[in-house]
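Structure first, sequence second, as always.
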């Protein structure tokens, strides 16, 4: 059973999830680790986060995972890892296959000419913070960086010709035309003809012989799906695409939809949509970043129950399984490269930019066929008010547009009055915390109106404006007659004011992402501003138990939907 929808029917794929041999090697030099000398004295769940388990809670260092894989026939194979946190080193039979920088994204490593028989896979997951080696996960970020093989891992057997990826783009709504790019690779250099078959929902659309020559290469087809339903938040119709090329195949689920902006509106299939939802971290005290399917299901049940149609995946690329569920339930998604309050120093460091560009490649390639994803984000609350960061912002926003011209690009600014790079965005997204970081609840309307007025006056009034973060803390279970900061009552009243003002008093906003869906552990260095060393601004706590604010948001979004 594939872990997420993208899958294969004829390619041999083995899911390597389960209990692996485990050893925690501590604060050791990664280069001094020899896989065949590791004494594996424990067991660990994959996927999962080793440092979310009691024995390794809070530990930072090198974690070693081991399991055996059975190879049935000689040939090329791939180990495909959906998330390795957050600096990974992979060995096969003691030989170094490769390293990977950063968690939250899928990557694969090739193994050429592997003999049939038993082989040993050893994976080192290093959760230490080290800017020089991995500038993507930094200690000052406001969330706990868990470590481990967090999202799952597969073993693929390939032939001499294989499909690397399928990229689909809706090019015309009326004719339901979808462009399909089939990126393939081959071990064979001689030119030859192989069968190509493309089907949608089991019905064959294309069946032909194609000439394969010097790979890697791309086959480009335009599919006319005129009698196929569109994907939209209200009617999230999905279609199963299967491509067979030679002896290989790949299955993707796709949605026929377009997204663009027109003035202040965001248009899905040419219909304006108002985004209403949350920022959501992929975190849980018992599972770290390695959320089991059950938590994903529970999260989406609650997100839908509150009447949301939007999730900002804060602040890193989202799990394919979560995107599958958002595709099915019509939840629109902002998917972003990892980032948090970066400075000009980071943005002028080629190592930082390279790591960001690589993660952008991985994020886009992994999410490109999910109709729920409508925008790419980057550099959360970074120094976009400085001239010195312009080149970095341009490099990353241009790269995202080059990778995928079909979606919108934005970044969340917390400096709306001084921001210098908003011209690079399709949507203006503002993080603001009136009533929490400054002022009281009654100050929220004026504060938001001042931001909207400034953006109008500074020439950004011709783009959709969303409030991409706003909220306040509420400690689960803390209710008090004073109803002051950190009480559930204060948090509920704050969000009630936000929703009422944004969507009743004013109509200048294209959307809202409340900060945040669930509480989550943060880094120890933030303890003084974070009771329990948790970010407590969730409308549910870290175990997804609802606070008073949950019911206020549910009522507010339901009223919004009823008003139309
Ligand atoms: C910022 C940041 C969030 C979180 C939030 C808060 O807006 O983008 O990740 O840290 O503040 O809780 O203060």
């Amino acid at each position: 059973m594939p872990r997420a929808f993208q899958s294969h029917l004829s390619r041999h794929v083995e899911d390597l999830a389960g209990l692996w041999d485990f050893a925690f090697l501590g604060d050791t030099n990664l280069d001094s680790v020899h896989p065949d000398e590791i004494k594996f004295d424990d067991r660990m769940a994959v996927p999962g986060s080793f440092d979310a388990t009691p024995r390794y809670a809070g530990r930072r260092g090198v974690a070693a995972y081991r399991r055996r894989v059975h190879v049935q026939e000689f040939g090329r194979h791939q180990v495909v890892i959906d998330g390795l946190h957050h600096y990974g080193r992979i060995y096969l039979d003691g030989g170094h296959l490769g390293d990977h920088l950063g968690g939250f994204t899928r990557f694969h490593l090739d193994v050429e000419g592997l003999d049939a028989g038993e082989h040993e896979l050893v994976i080192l997951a290093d959760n230490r913070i080290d800017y020089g080696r991995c500038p993507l996960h930094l200690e000052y970020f406001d969330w706990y960086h868990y470590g481990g093989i967090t999202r799952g891992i597969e073993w693929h057997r390939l032939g001499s010709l294989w499909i690397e990826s399928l990229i689909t783009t809706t090019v015309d709504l009326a004719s339901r035309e979808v462009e399909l790019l089939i990126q393939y690779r081959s071990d064979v250099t001689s030119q030859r003809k192989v069968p190509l078959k493309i089907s949608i929902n089991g019905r064959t659309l294309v069946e032909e012989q194609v000439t394969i020559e010097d790979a890697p290469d791309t086959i480009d087809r335009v599919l006319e799906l005129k009698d196929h339903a569109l994907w939209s938040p209200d009617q999230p119709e999905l279609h199963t695409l299967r491509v067979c090329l030679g002896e290989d195949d790949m299955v993707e689920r796709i949605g026929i939809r377009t997204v663009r902006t027109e003035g202040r509106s965001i248009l899905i299939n040419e219909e304006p949509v108002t985004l209403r939802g949350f920022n959501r971290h992929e975190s849980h005290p018992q599972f770290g970043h390695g959320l089991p399917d059950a938590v994903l299901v529970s999260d989406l049940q609650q997100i839908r129950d509150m009447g949301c149609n939007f999730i900002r995946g804060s602040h890193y690329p989202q799990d394919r399984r979560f995107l599958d569920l958002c595709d099915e339930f019509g939840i629109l998604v902002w998917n972003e490269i990892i980032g948090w309050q970066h400075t000009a120093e980071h943005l002028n460091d080629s190592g930082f930019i390279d790591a960001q560009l690589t993660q952008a490649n991985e994020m886009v390639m992994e999410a490109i066929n999910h109709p729920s994803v409508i925008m790419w984000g980057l550099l959360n609350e970074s120094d976009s008010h400085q001239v010195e960061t312009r080149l970095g912002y341009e490099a990353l926003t241009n790269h995202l547009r080059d990778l995928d011209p079909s979606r919108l690009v934005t970044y969340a600014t917390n400096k709306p009055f001084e921001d210098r790079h908003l011209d690079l965005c399709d949507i203006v997204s503002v993080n603001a915390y009136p009533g929490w970081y400054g002022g009281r609840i009654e100050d929220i309307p004026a504060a938001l109106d001042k931001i909207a007025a400034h953006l109008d006056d500074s020439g950004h009034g011709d783009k959709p404006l969303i409030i991409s973060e706003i909220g306040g803390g509420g400690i689960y279970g803390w209710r008090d007659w004073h109803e002051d900061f950190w009480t559930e009552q204060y948090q509920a009243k704050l969000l009630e004011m936000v929703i009422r003002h944004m969507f009743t008093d004013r109509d200048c906003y294209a959307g809202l992402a409340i900060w945040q869906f669930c509480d989550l552990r943060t880094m120890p260095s933030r303890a003084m501003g974070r009771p329990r060393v948790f970010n407590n601004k969730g409308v549910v706590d870290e175990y997804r138990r609802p606070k008073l604010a949950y019911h206020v948001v549910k009522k507010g979004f339901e009223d919004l939907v009823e008003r139309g």
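Margin note: The longest strand covers residues 161-172.
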